[in-house]
Amino acid sequence: MNEKNCINCNRTEQEYPLLVLNYQGKELYICPQCLPNLIHKPQTLVGKIPNFAPSTDQPPHEH
């Protein structure tokens, strides 16, 4: 059985609910607590998601 872990904090599905991400044909997981990193600071996930290179030409995201 493949263990499912958050790509950012490494929590398992036994510890915390995980959301499924599909990227370049691979299924990855992220917990709701780490999801804001993917949305607001995707550069923090470089190296944690294979071949992930977020665009740097987007304006700052503000609420």
Can you give a write-up of this model?
The model has no long low-confidence stretch (mean pLDDT 91). This protein starts with 18 loop residues before the first strand and ends in a 23-residue tail after the last helix. The chain has one domain (1-55). The chain is built from one helix and two strands, in the order ββα. Strands 1-2 form a two-stranded antiparallel ribbon. 10% of the residues lie in helices and 16% in strands. It is mostly beta strands. The chain has one helix at residues 35-40, and strands at residues 19-23, 26-30. The radius of gyration is 12 Å and the shape is globular. The longest helix has 6 residues, at 35-40.
Keywords:
single chain; globular; two-stranded antiparallel ribbon; mainly beta; 63 residues
Structural class: mainly beta
Q: What's the end-to-end separation, in Å? A: 41 Å
SSE series: EEH
What is the 3D shape? globular
How many strand units?
2
Question: Biggest β-sheet, characterized?
Answer: 2 strands, antiparallel
Biggest sheet, spatial arrangement of strands = 1-2
Q: What count of helical segments does DSSP give?
A: 1
Relative strand content? 15-25%
